[in-house]
Design brief:
Blueprint lengths: L3 H25 L9 H23 L19 H18 L2 H4 L2 E5 L5 E5 H25 L9 H5 L10
Antiparallel strand pairs: 1-2
Helix pairs in contact: 1-2, 1-3, 1-5, 2-3, 2-5
Length: 169
């Protein structure tokens, strides 16, 4: 294998980093008067949850020594930039070392409920991207519900290339 599949996951992570930045910008752009709303608090919490989930998988993959709590701790908007940057650094390092053959590796882990499971690394990478898309959609809905403007994070907007409208192209 020549690295084609892992390169796709690295590219998706580049897209995800851009989406994190845009989502964080959209949260920071919310008017101060709207920041006390329940919807805003939930949106901030969900972005923190995305960071925690990615850290949890690094723990389960054996990269981190300490587990992460996914749901109990509230997080402030001010804490998110540093937490996102650290999580992205750790994931960039992890992904940079993977080869296509590593994606097939099956590993065991324990769920928060105590049950043991096994998945391939590829299963988990795919899950994380879907998990992020899902929660970014929730964040967008929450921001719209309070009258704020969410970030546009659809992958098609990230990947599209403009076409020159001139007749000579």
């Amino acid at each position: 294998m020549n690295g084609i599949l892992i390169d796709r996951y690295r590219r998706w992570f580049d897209y995800e980093k851009d989406s994190h930045a845009k989502t964080l910008d959209s949260l920071n752009a919310v008017a101060e008067a709207l920041r006390q709303s329940e919807g805003f608090g939930k949106a901030v919490y969900l972005l923190g949850h995305l960071v925690a989930a990615r850290r949890m998988w690094l723990f389960r993959l054996g990269v981190l020594r300490e587990d992460t709590d996914l749901f109990t701790r509230e997080i402030s908007l001010a804490e998110l930039p540093e937490q996102i940057a650290e999580m992205e650094r750790l994931w960039s390092e992890y992904l940079s070392q993977l080869k296509d053959i590593d994606l097939e590796r099956v590993f065991e882990y324990q769920s928060y409920e105590g049950q043991r499971f096994r998945n391939s690394i590829e299963d988990i990478l795919t899950q994380m991207f879907g998990h992020s898309w899902y929660h970014r959609g929730q964040i967008a809905l929450l921001l719209r519900s309070i009258g704020a403007e969410p970030a546009v994070t659809d992958i098609v907007f990230w990947t599209r290339e403009p076409v020159d409208p001139s007749p000579n192209h």
